[in-house]
Amino acid sequence: MQINPKIIKNHFEKSLDKYNKNAIVQQIMAEELIAEVSNIETYFENILELGCGTGLLTNELAKKIHFRNYFANDLIEKSKFYVEKIIPNALFYHGNAKKIKPLKKMDLIISNAMFQWFENLENISLHYKNILNKEGILAFSTFSPENFREIKELTGLSLNYKSTKEIKNIFEKNYDILHIKEFTHTLNFSNPLELLAHMKNTGVNSLTAQHLTFKEVKEFCENYIKKYPQITLTYSPIIVICKKH
Ligand SMILES: C[S@@+](CC[C@H](N)C(=O)[O-])C[C@H]1O[C@@H](n2cnc3c(N)ncnc32)[C@H](O)[C@@H]1O
Question: pTM of the entire structure?
Answer without folding.
Answer: 0.96
